[in-house]
Write a structure and sequence with these properties.
heterotetramer; A: about 300 residues; alpha/beta; 2-enoyl-CoA Hydratase, Chain A, domain 1; 2 domains; eight-stranded mixed beta sheet; 14 helices; 8 strands; about 50% helix; B: about 290 residues; two-stranded antiparallel ribbon; globular; binds zinc ion; zinc (chains B, C); fatty acid metabolism (chains B, C); cytoplasm (chains B, C)
Chain lengths: ~300, ~290, ~290, ~300
């Protein structure tokens, strides 16, 4: 983020200086200030509409990027978080519960990153263990039972790699979600809000409609992972990002993503409320569009979406 | 001759063979080193023994076509979709070259062979992954062929079998490759709704996106002894946690203990086990 | 007055009270000792505070009838099956006497009160277990009343709530008591098939056959803070494993962490939480 | 067992002595031997038809009592054991798999005790952890999917009491089985073959038909447990056993058990084959009787069985 913002921040502080100078010494610098302000706006547009894939990767990973919880609290008039997989543990790297969006009862589930180091340790940096996916599945089946649409927010570097995760069946947990999600008779709307990292992202992403926030990314492997496989060199991640087609535009062109949700200039963190509004609008539209479909039609719609990808 | 000698005077013969091997750089065409017991073994013996180490029973890689010969009654195999070719959808650098290289090397068009045949007279659909082709990675062709094979099982009401071995998703196909996990899983959901048994056989190595989709979704999950099975590969885990992994971690026996595998079956008994399972699901010779 | 004094000059007042208590054996009618913070608390303060310790927020036992008053809108509660009495089916020694003793003591006929009423205007069926009656143990009457209440919820399509607190199955009714676990669970299965929400509230203590049946089967499981919830009681476990149990073991917070409880809710917020949940399931004032 | 068998064993050895004496010294003792042999038979009948509840408790707990595996291998022409809960661990205190009884495909699940100390440690003395019940449930749902009748063998002192068992939700696992078993559309035939200990037994026992081997027991608490609650004294377990109504006859009278399967004189361990034959015969009869019922009728039959117990 630092790098992306740097010229903008420099120009902003220059304008502030001029304003102060003008005030303190009572000289008219309004023309200069106007010119620079316009220049600033252009620069912002220029920069944020032309972010490189690698810049987007960094943007989605920055600490001020809004998380699932931020959107949930902005979108829902009431939300009750529910916990646990009824088997081993409550995994805090996934948040889930029931909520009201306008007057629609929904189940919302999302990867949950932290914003501080402490929070991130508790949330395991948004990298779920198998029990996280099992909690998600439990809540999704509950949604299906009570005929509630399901909203999922995708934002994870990936499923966690570690001894416990393997012992408790990371592969099985992800696979199970893919299969079970495909059998749910309620619409599933997924929105990639940050990092969509591999199978750990897809485990919440077998949906009827997939949207991505403009600057978010979604990929089969991390740029670092690809770079280390291709060139045995993690430092070439930025180069890897540029060839792997991970931006919302790339995925839209590949017909994997149904909708790109615009972010405010400078990214979602500059205006969580307006970003939430855009997300909410999209969710409500989509839920409405599935309102008159039968369970079988909803399942079939989801089936067709994935059936056609790739061949 | 040499085999007999080895068997009769094991220790002596072994020692001299090792010496031979090291000193005279005996032709590697004929000899190999067992990755498990580290002994030198005569390649021909290994091949005649279904690629199982004759010294320690370790299951080496069985070539995909030979897997079909092992499991399917002679002359009954009909292959599906042999001519499905991967495309370079992302314009990924060097991908076409790589594909061509592997096509030439393996004489296959992609990393899975699918088809139908009989197992001791009982019909089945079978998919055999091929790690000789780009590490058995799953791209659009693998996803599509497995999906179509499952559809065939649904339409013909016959049991479905996948023999997995894979390095995971095929990164050169990016998000398209990732989506094959969902595509195959949802076809297995349909298979399941039609109550058709799906037997998943895990062989060394089964990792990544394959483990996290169809490999782990069998009604019955069988593994070959000592096969490495996991989501993350052991090297990636070691790098992440900065520790060495315990012995036997992610091996078939470990997964059995952890509750993710139903049965560990020796390659030599595999066909009979499939036959028994299919029979117990009420299928009879047609 | 005393309450105010305590609040204002906390440390001083406390000390003197403790002294008073110990030296002059102050009437136990008026004072009690909080099992959590061990402080002496004025009984009336506790009662006025919904039996929550005013010093440390610990949730003491709330009498069953008061639980109904707390959760159900005044004047809307209709009780079910008040006159179902336990029988001594096994001819268990002393059982009738024991039942009569508890009937006299509690003025209730068995260990659960069931009925229907409104929660901020929304209909619900509610079952409140009563540990004052034979430790809240489940015999045929408890099983039958809960089953009938669930049936009522099915027939009237209204949410179902159980507030559990129990020592487990009632040994005096032997196998019949054990079978109530299956009987209630299968009625909850029917409730679930009819897609009627079931909210299970776990209060201190919920153990044994109640934990191993309806208490753990809620669509949403709520616990009161620090409530002891387990299958085996802590003393039995300690005897079995010959170790002392860690602090907080089997408490509500522990179960939340282990994934078995959805939400921990303070008694004061419980009614509102039920209201919000029921509302989110699409129910409206009738 | 020792105590029960003692007079029988003494008499048996006396008869042997006489036989030897007769042979070695060439004297005719056939009358005496005949009398004693008849006496032995009477004694056996006398003892085994009048076992006290406490003797039955000990009989079911003795090391030579046949286990689930013994019956499975005798009953099935083929059996494939399946493993694991797909979540945490394979619990060896429960055995399960698919098998053929004559030509009927069934799923069989049972508590599994060991016969040696070593085996018993591996099998945890037949006391399951939650993952054991979850394995059982997985196999039962699989049976339901493929429309296979389910046979369960009940033989456990109870669900295990320990830290791990509580951490992983012993109560939840048992409760879940009770609920889910009640929803299966295939007949479930349960047979108590030894100790039916409390909720840990019932978790495999929500069935359409419940049979008990003649000398087996089934109770809400162990005699030791009851004795320690009632009299603060574990040593009065035998007295507790006598009041708690835990024998097959008691449960038959209480209409909890549908059938008592006779054991050979001296108990099942004296002739596993014939006991297995009796069990097999019962299973086949019962499966046949459900053959023409619909799934809904089978579920309803099971519902009614438990609905009427107690009130
Ligand atoms: Zn070897
Ligand atoms: Zn207190």
């Amino acid at each position: 983020m630092m790098q992306i913002d740097k010229p903008i921040l420099e120009l902003e502080s220059k304008i502030q200086e001029l304003k102060k100078l003008s005030q303190d010494n009572n000289i008219d610098l309004s023309t200069e200030i106007d010119i620079l302000t316009r220049k600033l706006e252009n620069m912002k547009t220029q920069i944020y509409e032309n972010l490189t894939p690698w810049q987007k990767v960094n943007l989605t990973r920055s600490n001020d990027r809004p998380t699932s919880k931020d959107y949930i609290l902005n979108i829902c008039s009431d939300f009750i978080e529910l916990h646990g997989d009824r088997c081993f543990r409550d995994d805090l790297s996934i948040i889930g519960g029931i909520g009201l969006i306008d007057d629609i009862c929904v189940t919302i589930i999302g990867h949950q990153k932290g914003k501080t180091v402490k929070e991130n340790i508790a949330r395991n940096f948004g990298m779920p263990h198998p029990e996280g996916y099992r909690k998600a599945l439990r809540l999704m089946k509950q949604a299906d039972k009570f005929n509630r649409p399901i909203i999922t927010f995708i934002d994870t570097p990936g499923a966690y790699c570690g001894i416990g995760a393997e012992e408790r069946g990371q592969g099985e947990a992800i696979a199970r979600n893919l299969l079970e999600m495909s059998s749910l008779g309620v619409p599933i709307i997924s929105i990639v809000i940050g990092e969509g990292g591999s199978g750990g992202a897809l485990a919440l992403g077998v949906c009827n409609k997939l949207a991505m926030l403009e600057h978010s990314i979604y990929s089969v492997i991390s740029p670092e992972g690809l770079s280390s496989i291709l060139w045995k060199d993690v430092s070439k991640a930025s180069q890897a990002a540029s060839i792997m087609k991970l931006t919302s535009n790339d995925l839209y062109e590949l017909e994997v993503v149904d909708k790109i949700i615009k972010e405010p200039l400078g990214g979602a963190q500059k205006d969580v409320k307006s970003t939430s509004e855009s997300i909410k609008k999209y969710i409500i539209e989509q839920i409405r569009s599935y309102q008159n479909l039968t369970r079988e039609e909803i399942i079939d719609d989801r089936y067709k979406k994935f059936r056609k990808i790739g061949y | 001759m040499i085999k007999k000698l080895l068997n009769k005077n094991k220790e002596y013969a072994n020692l001299s063979m090792v010496n031979n091997f090291q000193n005279n750089s005996l032709d590697e065409k004929f000899w190999m080193n067992c990755p498990e017991c580290k002994k030198n073994i005569f390649k021909k013996d290994v091949e005649e023994n279904l690629y199982i180490c004759p010294k320690c029973d370790y299951h080496l890689k069985l070539p995909a076509r030979q897997r079909i010969d092992l499991l399917i009654d002679t002359g009954t195999f009909t292959e599906f979709d042999k001519n499905l070719y991967s495309k370079n959808i992302l314009n990924f650098p060097e991908y076409e070259n790589k594909l061509n290289l592997y096509k030439d090397k393996t004489n296959e068009n992609d990393a899975v062979i699918t088809g139908t045949g009989k197992i001791n007279g009982l019909n089945a659909t079978i998919c055999v992954m091929n790690t000789d082709f780009m590490m058995g990675s799953m791209g659009a062709v693998v996803g599509e062929k497995i999906t179509r094979a499952a559809t065939y099982s649904i339409e013909n009401k016959i049991p479905f079998i996948i023999i997995s071995s894979s390095g995971g998703a095929r990164m050169q196909e990016g998000i398209i490759s990732l989506m094959q996990m969902a595509k195959t899983a949802q076809e297995l959901r349909r298979l399941s709704e039609y109550k058709i048994p799906y037997i998943s056989i895990l062989t060394d190595p089964t990792t990544g996106g394959v483990t996290a989709s169809f490999a782990m979704l069998g009604d019955i999950i069988i593994a070959e002894p000592k096969a490495l099975i996991g989501f993350a590969g052991p090297r990636v885990i070691e790098q992440t946690i900065k520790q060495t992994l315990p012995d036997g971690f992610q091996r078939a026996e470990f997964l059995l203990e952890k509750g993710f595998v139903d049965i560990i079956v020796n390659r030599k008994d595999m066909k009979n086990m499939l036959f028994r399972i299919i029979k117990m699901h009420g299928y009879q010779e047609a």
